[in-house]
């Protein structure tokens, strides 16, 4: 009789930035299939999702992946439901609407800092001082400017072994700052995979005496902040072949700038200053190849005859990919491009 370890992973009720929680369920003769993952429960009063007098919340499995770090292990991404089976108010995945056929594709670029738990500083930062200025850390090689490669490489291996659509890694502009990329067809699928990738990274840090800092500007001063750039497309953007369509969709983001910023991550005003490859949080702009714009139109999209994708550069590194995707879908679907395609 075989036994499997099912790690149920969910988002808690802390606002505006949710935290991941997880616990293990042992199942006998488990098939490895999502449909055979039972609904489970947890104490919502310990996660700001219920009161003590009525504390049960439900975990509904929505995606499953092999756990590369555990024998007979699985990672089970779960939505939180109330005791009567309705989506909990904290259930951001349930807010994604208008993507029933997975028409929207998302590529998230997740930036982060690796922090030393003892010094509370990014790797490479000396106690009481600063490393050399930005310039030589981005995509660097060698122990002078590269910090944390071992854990980053292990994380990449884990994500690939778990079956995620893991696209790549690179050291970022600031010292101790890295990035990984996830691509998936379907907004919910993309969000699931980003959260699982974050989970695997966070769990790995337990072995090193590190932690991952998702704050968009943990080091004040002349250092790049961390974002979670959202590359997105739907069938219109992938096939229209029209500059006018692209510009009309980009223009639709301007009047709802506030609504986007509200779900693009806490403390994002500290990152979106108009410096360090960002547009000001108080402004909106778009442009071809412009990394200082709110939305960048990739040069590859133009070179392919205006068939491709857009990049919203505003989401912060601590943003919830479910919320980001839901808001982008709502804005894009508000545009009537019928006469232009």
TrEMBL record:
Q: What is its main location?
A: cytoplasm
Regions that span the bilayer: none
The cellular location(s) given in this protein's UniProt record come to: Cytoplasm
BP term (GO), one: glutamine biosynthetic process
What terms describe the molecular function in GO for this protein?
ATP binding; glutamine synthetase activity
- Reaction catalysis annotation: L-glutamate + NH4(+) + ATP = L-glutamine + ADP + phosphate + H(+)
EC number(s): the record gives 6.3.1.2
Domain annotation GS beta-grasp: ranges? 4-85
Q: Which InterPro entries match?
A: Gln_synt_N, Gln_synt_N_sf, Gln_synth/guanido_kin_cat_dom, Gln_synth_cat_dom, Gln_synth_gly_rich_site, Gln_synth_N_conserv_site, Glutamine_Synthetase
Residue span, GS catalytic domain: 87-341
Keywords, comma-separated and alphabetical: ATP-binding, Cytoplasm, Ligase, Nucleotide-binding
GO cellular component entries: cytoplasm
Give the top-level enzyme category.
Answer: ligase
Segment forming the signal sequence: none
PROSITE patterns the UniProt entry points to: GLNA_1 (PS00180), GLNA_ATP (PS00181), GS_BETA_GRASP (PS51986), GS_CATALYTIC (PS51987)
Question: What function does the entry list?
Answer: Catalyzes the ATP-dependent biosynthesis of glutamine from glutamate and ammonia.
Q: How does it assemble?
A: Homooctamer and homotetramer.
UniProt record similarity statement: Belongs to the glutamine synthetase family.
What protein is this chain from?
Glutamine synthetase
Per the UniProt entry, what species is this protein from, by scientific name?
Flagellimonas lutaonensis
């Amino acid at each position: 009789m075989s036994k499997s370890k099912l790690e149920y992973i969910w988002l808690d009720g802390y606002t505006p930035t949710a935290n991941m929680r997880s616990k293990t369920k042992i199942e006998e003769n488990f098939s490895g299939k999502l449909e055979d993952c039972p609904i489970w429960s947890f104490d919502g009063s310990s996660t700001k999702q219920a009161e003590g007098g009525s504390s049960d919340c439900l975990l509904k499995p929505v995606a499953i992946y092999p756990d590369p770090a555990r024998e007979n292990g699985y990672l089970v991404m779960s939505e939180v439901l109330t005791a009567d089976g309705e989506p909990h108010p904290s259930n951001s995945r349930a807010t994604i609407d208008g993507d029933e056929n997975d028409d929207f594709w998302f590529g998230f670029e997740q930036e982060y800092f690796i922090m030393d738990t003892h010094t509370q500083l990014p790797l490479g930062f000396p106690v009481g001082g600063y490393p050399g200025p930005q310039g030589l850390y981005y995509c660097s090689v060698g122990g002078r400017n590269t910090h944390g490669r071992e854990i980053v490489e292990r994380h990449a291996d884990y994500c690939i072994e778990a079956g995620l659509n893991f696209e790549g890694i690179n050291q970022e502009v600031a010292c101790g700052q890295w990035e990984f990329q996830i691509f998936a067809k379907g907004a919910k699928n993309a969000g699931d995979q980003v959260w699982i990738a974050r989970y695997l990274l966070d769990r790995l840090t337990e072995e090193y005496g590190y932690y991952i800092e998702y704050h968009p500007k943990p080091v004040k001063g002349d250092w790049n902040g961390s974002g979670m750039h959202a590359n997105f497309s739907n069938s219109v953007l992938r096939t229209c072949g029209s500059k006018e369509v692209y510009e009309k969709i980009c223009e639709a983001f301007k009047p709802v700038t506030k609504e986007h910023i509200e779900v693009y991550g806490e403390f994002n005003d500290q990152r979106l200053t108009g410096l360090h490859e960002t547009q000001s949080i108080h402004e909106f702009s778009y442009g071809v190849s412009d990394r200082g714009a709110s939305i960048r139109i990739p040069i590859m999209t133009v070179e392919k005859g205006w068939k491709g994708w857009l990049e919203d550069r505003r989401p912060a590194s601590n943003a919830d990919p479910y919320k980001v995707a839901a808001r982008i879908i709502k804005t894009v679907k508000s545009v009537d491009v019928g006469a232009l395609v």
